Amino acid sequence: MTKIDFYTGSEDKLRTACQLSHKAVQNGVRVLLHTPDEAVAEALDRLLWHYPAVAFIPHCRSHEAQASNMPVVVGNRFESFPHSELLVSLHTSCLPFFSRFERLIEIVGEDAEDVRMGRERFSFYRDRGYEMRHFDMRKQTS
Fold first, then answer.
1. pTM above threshold 0.70
2. Comparing C-alpha atoms, which of 7, 89, 19 is closest to residue 51?
3. In whole angstroms, what is the distance from residue 5 CA to residue 53 CA?
4. φ, ψ for residue 56 (rounded to 5)?
5. Is 21 in contact with 107 (CB distance < 8 Å)?
6. Maximum pairwise Cα distance, the chain
7. Domain ranges of the chain
8. pLDDT tens digit sequence for 12-36
9. Chain mean position to CA 63
10. Among 131, 87, 85, which residue's Cα sits nearest to residue 106?
11. Are 20 and 7 in contact, with CB atoms under 8 Å apart?
12. Which SS3 state, helix, strand or coil, does residue 20 take?
């Protein structure tokens, strides 16, 4: 069963996604970063070229031929995915295919609507018996 981690209080959800991807790759875990639309996918792709400042996270878009060999893949469609290790969702609703992944990370920002939608997703997973952990990013920076 998929293990789910919620990261709440993110000041910048794209940077948080990069940070968590970098950590996962360092631990040998492959990542699918799933975005709600093409504009967010493009912004995340650009950010990954410069994050972290002293390293590089090898990545590509999910429709590219080399996706099956990349540690980080960025996608925004419901196409076939090159692995089922870690899904990082930047959506406000639950993804219908999340359960095919070993682990799911949900990132929740600071604005009221994002927090409300995050609580709905948390309840959805909890009510179905998924193992969940919560990390408050505001406590990590203070």
1. yes
2. 19
3. 26
4. -145, 135
5. no
6. 42
7. 3-141
8. 999 999 999 999 999 999 999 999 9
9. 18
10. 87
11. yes
12. helix
Q: How many CA atoms lie within 13 A of 142 on its CB side?
A: 5
pLDDT for the residue numbered 132: 97
Question: How many Å apart are CA 76 and CA 61, to the nearest integer?
Answer: 9
- Say how many C-beta atoms besides its own lie within 10 A of residue 79's C-beta: 10
Reported as a single tens digit per residue, the pLDDT across 26-85 is 999 999 999 999 999 999 999 999 887 777 789 999 989 999 999 999 999 876 788 899
Distance CA 3, CA 83 (A): 16
Enumerate residues 6+ apart whose C-beta is below 8 A from 42. Answer: none
Q: Can you tell me whether residue 8 is helix, strand or coil?
A: strand
CATH value of 3-141 in 3.40.50.150, 3.30.70.100, 3.40.50.10110, 3.90.350.10 = 3.40.50.10110
Altogether, the residues listed in the chain come to a count of 142
Extract the tokens encoding 70: 């990349």
Tokens matching residue 47: 């950010």
Residue matched to tokens 């009510």: 127
Chain CA centroid to CA 81, Å: 14
